[in-house]
């Protein structure tokens, strides 16, 4: 039985409509899945930063540049082969005479005086292959190769330094988010606490137990805590933006971070040992050491200008009146060049020696700077560690003081001023504890960075 055309068309339209309706549903489902955010741990944040941070990509390109410079320097020791094709038309007597010899077309009639002095214009096509092999190039290639390889080492040192700096920035901003979240919670609890006290004070005022000044003082306290809450909320948004920047992501990328700045013990070695290890592990110091070696190679290269240069060369060519015919010739030889008088050589040598002395002085200055940075980071960490111990005890004391003062105020044994002061003290001590813990975490990371040992962040999470 033959199926009518309108039935076939109707079936096709139904299938098209079904596909169109199914596609948005699929897109919506996939969008929901892609919108889900994974909880961001510190190790995951560091891994993301290592992949996305543009500073590390720039360091990788620096290594690629150094590799290309090595290839370029090594090419100086290889032969150079050149191909050339030239066309010349002239009636210059010397050109005409020599070209006829090159083309193999010189005849006795060309000795005619008139022809020699006033030759007809002549075409000459010259095809040539030229080979030059450097035998000894005054130490130039060896110097460039050595400096290029040192440049590779310096690129690796820069890459290592940038990676440690990125880890430091991730640690700083990651815990910056945690402390900002905790500050927001503290200020929110402070607002809640002050509003509860304000309600009780208003009830006492309505019953005539206290004067209006106590109520106004409580309302001022509530407003002050609300301002701190608003500021904490803004700082949290900024902290997330700083973390995303460290991760190499857009500042508004949503992140899911949970956790608290809990008490943690970090073990550090002796200060003298840290100072010694810093000069061994710091990538920037290794970069400076490589810089001194590169300057030594520059001095060696400058001395090479006082030596002769030796090259081997050969050439094969074909000369003709057109491209389809011609006479071939070759040439083989070697050359030695020595600059007997060259005032520029002494200037280059003096410049190289001065650069070497400058590199040594900069290395010494960097060593002193590193020692200072290690000592400063060590003292800051020790100070933060001590502040955490002090701040932890004062929070419990401030909570007990507030409880006692509130009870005394309820019985009329103290003033509203003491209650407000106790509230402010409790909030301040809790914020001080958060700040001390944050500075302890960051201080330890900074100490590792100053020693060139911020390699693994597992210690922060364990």
What do these coordinates show?
The protein is α+β, with helices and mostly antiparallel strands. The chain has one domain (42-79, 140-308, 344-461): Outer membrane efflux proteins (OEP) (Up-down Bundle), CATH 1.20.1600.10. 69% of the residues lie in helices and 12% in strands. It has helices at 5-35, 42-52, 54-74, 93-103, 113-117, 140-206, 212-247, 271-281, 283-303, 343-410, 416-450, 458-461; strands spanning 80-90, 122-137, 309-322, 325-337. Strands 1-2-3-4 form a four-stranded antiparallel β-sheet. α6 packs antiparallel against α7 (212-247). The longest helix is centred in the C-terminal third of the chain and has 68 residues, at 343-410.
Topology:
Elements: H1 5-35, H2 42-52, H3 54-74, E1 80-90, H4 93-103, H5 113-117, E2 122-137, H6 140-206, H7 212-247, H8 271-281, H9 283-303, E3 309-322, E4 325-337, H10 343-410, H11 416-450, H12 458-461
């Amino acid at each position: 039985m033959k199926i009518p055309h309108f039935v076939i068309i109707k079936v096709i339209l139904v299938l098209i409509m079904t596909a169109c309706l199914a596609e948005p549903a699929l897109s919506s489902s996939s969008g929901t899945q892609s919108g889900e955010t994974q909880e961001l741990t510190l190790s995951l944040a560091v891994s993301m930063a290592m992949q996305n941070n543009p500073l590390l990509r720039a360091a990788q390109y620096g290594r690629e540049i150094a590799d290309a410079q090595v290839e370029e320097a090594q090419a100086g020791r290889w032969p150079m082969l050149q191909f050339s094709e030239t066309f010349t038309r002239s009636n210059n007597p010397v050109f005409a005479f020599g070209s006829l010899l090159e083309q193999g077309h010189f005849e006795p009639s060309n000795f005619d005086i008139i022809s020699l002095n006033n030759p007809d214009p002549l075409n000459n096509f010259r095809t040539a292959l030229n080979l030059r092999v450097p035998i000894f190039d005054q130490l130039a290639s060896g110097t460039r190769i050595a400096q290029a390889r040192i440049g590779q080492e310096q690129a690796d040192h820069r890459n290592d330094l940038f990676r440690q700096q990125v880890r430091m920035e991730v640690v700083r901003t990651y815990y910056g988010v945690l402390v900002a979240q905790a500050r927001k919670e503290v200020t929110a609890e402070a607002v809640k606490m002050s509003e509860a006290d304000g309600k009780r004070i208003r009830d006492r005022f309505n019953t005539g137990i206290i004067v209006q000044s106590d109520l106004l003082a409580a309302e001022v306290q509530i407003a002050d805590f609300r301002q701190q809450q608003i500021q904490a909320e803004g700082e949290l948004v900024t902290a997330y933006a700083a973390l995303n920047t460290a991760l190499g992501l857009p500042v508004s990328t949503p992140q899911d971070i949970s956790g608290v700045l809990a008490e943690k013990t970090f073990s550090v070695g002796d200060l003298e040992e840290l100072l010694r290890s810093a000069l061994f592990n710091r990538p920037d110091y290794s970069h400076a050491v490589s810089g001194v070696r590169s300057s030594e190679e520059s001095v060696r290269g400058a001395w090479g200008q006082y030596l002769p240069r030796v090259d081997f060369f050969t050439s094969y060519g074909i000369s003709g009146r057109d491209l389809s015919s011609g006479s071939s010739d070759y040439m083989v030889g070697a050359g030695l060049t020595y600059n007997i008088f060259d005032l520029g050589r002494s200037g280059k040598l003096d410049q190289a020696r001065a650069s070497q002395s400058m590199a040594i002085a900069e290395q010494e200055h960097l060593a002193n700077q590193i020692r200072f940075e290690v000592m400063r980071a060590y003292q800051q960490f020790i100070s933060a560690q001590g502040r955490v111990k002090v701040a932890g005890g004062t929070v419990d004391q401030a909570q007990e003081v507030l409880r006692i003062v509130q009870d005394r105020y309820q019985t009329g044994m103290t003033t509203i001023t003491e209650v407000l002061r106790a509230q402010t003290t409790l909030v301040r001590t809790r914020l001080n504890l958060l700040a001390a813990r944050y500075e302890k975490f960051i201080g330890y990371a900074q100490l590792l960075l100053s020693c060139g040992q911020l390699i693994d962040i597992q210690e922060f999470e364990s």
